[in-house]
C-alpha cells in the first residue's frame, strides 16, 4: 500500500512540474548579443600575475589571435610602436621597484609597448598606462627602454601570451610569445623596498 501511495505522489509531482514548465514564458535569445560576444572573444582581455621577492607583479592585456595572418612585418609594421596587445595598451603593475636591464622601474603602473624590428626589439615601460592602443603614446613619458633579441620558432603560437616566471627568491623573467616570436628578459626585485 505504501508503495502505491509513493508512486501516485511521484506521478502527481512530475505532472505538476511539467505543467509549471509549460506555463512559464519561453526566454528568447538575442542573437546580436551572441555575435558581439564572439567578436569580442577574438582578443579576450586576460592577465597574468606572480609574487616574487614580496613584489606583486601584474600584466593586463587583450590577447589577439594570429588567424592565418603574418603578424610581425605584416599586420604590425617593423620599427613602429605597438601597444603589445589589442585594444587598450597592455599595462604592467609592480608593488616594488624592479631592476630591468640595469634600469630601475619604480613601483607603480605602466603602459607596456614594444617596437618590433628585423633585428633587436625595443621594450618600453611608459608612464601613460591608460590609453587606447598607442593613440596617446609619447616617447618623452618612457621611464625604462631597452633592446632584446627575439627568439624564433617554426611553430605558431596562435594567441598572444605573457608569462612571469620566478627564477629565484627575488628574480624572474617576463616573456611574451605570439605568432613565431618570443621575447623575454630578466628582472630583479630590489631589496631596498619597504
Could you walk me through the main structural features you see in this protein, from its secondary elements to its overall organization?
The chain has 194 residues and is of the alpha+beta class. The chain has one domain. The protein has 2 helices and 10 strands; from the N terminus they run ααββββββββββ. It has a 6-stranded antiparallel beta sheet, with no helix packed on it. A 4-stranded antiparallel beta sheet has the order 5-4-10-9, with no helix packed on it. The relative contact order is 0.16.
Mind telling me the C-alpha Rg?
Answer: 25 Å
H and E string: HHEEEEEEEEEE
What is the structural class? alpha+beta
Provide the domain count.
Answer: 1
Helical segment count? 2
Biased composition (Basic and acidic residues): 22-36
Organism: Planktosalinus lacus
InterPro entries: DUF2911
Protein name: DUF2911 domain-containing protein
List the keywords.
single chain; DUF2911 domain-containing protein; four-stranded antiparallel sheet; 194 residues; six-stranded antiparallel sheet; 10 strands; DUF2911; disordered N terminus; globular; 2 helices; alpha+beta
Amino acid at each position: 500500500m505504501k508503495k502505491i501511495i509513493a508512486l501516485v505522489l511521484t506521478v502527481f509531482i512530475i505532472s505538476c512540474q511539467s505543467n509549471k514548465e509549460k506555463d512559464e514564458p519561453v526566454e528568447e535569445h538575442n542573437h546580436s548579443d551572441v555575435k558581439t560576444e564572439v567578436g569580442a572573444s577574438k582578443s579576450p582581455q586576460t592577465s597574468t600575475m606572480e609574487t616574487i621577492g614580496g613584489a606583486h607583479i601584474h600584466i593586463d592585456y587583450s590577447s589577439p589571435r594570429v588567424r592565418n595572418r603574418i603578424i610581425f612585418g605584416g599586420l604590425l609594421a617593423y620599427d613602429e610602436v605597438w601597444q603589445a596587445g589589442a585594444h587598450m595598451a597592455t599595462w604592467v603593475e609592480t608593488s616594488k621597484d624592479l631592476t630591468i636591464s640595469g634600469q630601475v622601474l619604480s613601483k607603480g603602473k605602466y603602459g607596456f609597448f614594444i617596437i618590433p624590428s628585423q633585428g633587436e626589439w625595443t621594450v618600453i615601460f611608459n608612464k601613460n598606462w591608460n590609453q587606447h592602443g598607442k593613440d596617446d603614446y609619447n616617447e618623452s613619458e618612457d621611464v625604462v627602454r631597452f633592446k632584446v633579441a627575439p627568439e624564433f620558432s617554426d611553430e605558431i603560437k596562435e594567441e598572444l601570451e605573457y608569462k612571469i616566471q620566478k627564477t629565484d627568491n627575488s628574480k624572474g623573467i617576463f616573456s611574451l610569445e605570439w605568432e613565431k616570436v618570443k621575447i623575454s628578459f630578466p628582472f630583479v626585485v630590489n631589496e631596498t623596498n619597504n
